[in-house]
Amino acid sequence: MPSFLLIKPMLRTKSIVSSIADVPREWVFEFYLTLPEQLHGQDLKISSPFNPAEKNPSFFVYYSRTAFKYKFKDFSTDRQGDGTSLVKEMFSLTSRGEAAHKIIEDYNKFIIDNPESHILREFKIQQKYKVTSFTTRGWNKLDEKFWMGYRISSKLLKHYNVQALKDYTLTKELDNGKNNKLQMNGAQMYGYFRKDGTLYKVYQPFVRDSKFIKVVDYIQGTDQLTLTVPYLVICSSLKDLMAFSKLGFKNAEGVAPDSENTLIPERIVNKYKESYKNVCTLFDNDPAGIKSMNKYQERYELPFVHLDLEKDLADAVKEHGINNTRIHVYPLLTKALTGTLKQI
Fold it and tell me: Are residues 245 and 200 in the same domain?
């Protein structure tokens, strides 16, 4: 792929366009989302235009390296698509054709009012920071206090290949070909590893904007599956998965996707269905978690467990203890997995 993609100037011999193909794709996002900066290949995270009540921005505008155009993903409402899809959703239009017509009309008005605004723009896909190295450390009292609050012991952390990190390095390739490196240090940072030692995620529980840094794709808990029990529970996170293992259900084991917003691929879900008598989800007790469980039910016909004790299963164990949480989970889980209240 060439380093620079030049967008053709739209103002030639006339100032009116008649085709959606003549409207710059990035202009659609800049105009309708009132972005704070022009798009030159970078990604942006902003507050969702579809969910004004959200506290943390979860709406991503990003350049798709496969579609060669800007797209969006709204994690708070699960909407996604290109610029035409954005306008269709924002204005509740009935079709993409209607959305394209509106974009053309609005762009014509824009270039008439701003005849000098659209010029040849240098366009470069910007590289992202990636975790390229890390240093592990031993456990300390702060780690013990944090994890034991959820009744998660060092033995369980070892079983799921969680290690404390002293630091990690983020690297990004700059325009001049050189690398920019950032070394990140913190008192409580944890690495999630595969059994073969591959780091797949960094967990920073007290860093609000980057609590999780995904390094590689991985369905958490896969290495620990035995395939010798009849039931599988899909949890929302590794911490919830570890909390679930503390409840003592001997006939069930679990996995967790990268996040509730990431659907496990259908081919893998089908393998789960072949390997287990039944499979269910147990996600967070919030709108995003409930929506994700409904999506798994609609798409894969998986039943779900809605535990309303706390925001998530790990918090339920932390606030109510293992026994009380188990008492609440037991009838919900057995009904989801067996359709009855018989013991699992």
Answer: no
What confidence score (pLDDT) does residue 258 get? 87
Whether residue 103 sits in one domain with residue 25: yes
Mean pLDDT of the chain: 88
- 3-state DSSP of the chain: CCCECCCCCCCCCCCCCCCHHHCCHHHHHHHHCCCCCCCCCCCEEECCCCCCCCCCCCEEEEEECCCCEEEEEECCCCEEECHHHHHHHHCCCCCHHHHHHHHHHHHHHHHHHCCCCCCCCCCECCCCCEEEEEEECCCCHHHHHHHHCCCCCHHHHHHCCEEEEEEEEEEEECCCCCEEEEEEEEEEEEEEECCCCCEEEEECCCCCCCCEEECCCCCECHHHCCCCCCEEEEECCHHHHHHHHCCCCCCEEEEECCCCCCCCCHHHHHHHHHHCCEEEEECCCCHHHHHHHHHHHHHHCCCECCCCCCCCHHHHHHHHHHHHHHHHHHHHHHHHHHCCCCCC
Last residue of a domain, one of 80, 113, 146: 113
Does 66 have pLDDT greater than 60? yes
Q: Which of 113, 147, 162 finishes a domain?
A: 113
Q: Are residues 226 and 335 in the same domain?
A: yes
Mind listing the pLDDT tens digit for each residue in 131-153? 999 999 999 999 999 999 999 99
Do 159 and 186 lie in one domain? The reply is yes
CATH of the domain at 253: 3.40.1360.10
Domain that holds residue 239: 219-344
Please give the average per-residue pLDDT across 242-269, as a whole number. 92
